[in-house]
Amino acid sequence: MEDPRRDEIAAIAREMKARLSWYREEGVDSWKIAPPAPIKESERIQKMPKQKEPKPYEPIEPPRFAAEAPGGPLSAPAGSTAPRTLAEIRDEIGDCRRCKLCSTRKNIVFGTGSPTAALMFVGEAPGADEDAQGQPFVGRAGQLLTKMINAMGLSREEVYIANIIKCRPPENRNPQPEEIASCKPFLEKQIEAIRPKVICALGTFSAQTLLETQQKISALRGKFHEYHGVKVLPTFHPAYLLRNPNEKKSVWEDLQKIMEELKKG
Ligand code: URA
Asked: Mean pLDDT throughout 153-171?
């Protein structure tokens, strides 16, 4: 008699085959842990609101820095009306004119994913593709990040993806201190709203900014650090991996540490 679960089993086999072939492609030859439990349907919620059309220049009040709060960036100032949801934070950013990147950007790249994500990825800054689409990590490096997320047994919708700064620096230059000072409070608020279990800091710039250190990514990566009570694991940036594919194995080891941490529940 035909097994009634034949189609289901075949679908699982196909998915396993696809994942294993990605691992092989990425030079992974060993793995020891199961992917974390899938996030409950009730926990995956709304997509972020669509990017608004840019408005003409108008001066805006400087942001209220979360870092000024007495308990640090992840606690709201006493009696404050600090935004609590990602939609409120996006609204507070508005058509941002707080730094000079507003004059060259096409879109503000706020972030995407689950507002209750246990895992958050923080990159550096939008590139040309991200600027054009208003979404983080959608170019070549983004496609590799998506593969990394999928190899962890997760989807982009189940994690949250953001950057240290939300507007593209011209010619993809490094963000400047005043640009970070304007933008970082909003990342802090996003972290506060999501309260992920783990932040994966992608690349030197993200790791150094979040951890307020000048240490090299090679020294920081692969170990858990802390950002206001949230575990931070820095790893190499996917763009670096595109240039140095032999480091993919190290990144896979880092991602496995995150998976293990997420499994602890
Ligand atoms: N690199 C980043 O750091 N962030 C993006 O969103 C895209 C590329």
From this structure: 98
C-alpha of residue 83 to centroid of ligand 1, in Å: 25
Ligand 1 centroid to Cα of residue 126, in Å, is: 5
| 174-229 tens-digit pLDDT | 999 999 999 999 999 999 999 999 999 999 999 999 999 999 999 999 999 999 99
Domains of the chain: 86-263 (3.40.470.10)
3-state secondary structure of 28: coil
Q: How many beta carbons lie within 10 A of that of residue 99, not counting itself?
A: 18
Rounded to the nearest whole angstrom, what is the distance from the C-alpha of residue 243 to the centroid of ligand 1? 15
Protein residues with CB under 6 Å of any ligand 1 atom: 123-127, 130, 136-137, 139, 141-142, 163, 239
Band of pLDDT at residue 71, cut at 50, 70 and 90: very low
In sequence order, the β-bridge partners of residue 198 are: 119, 231
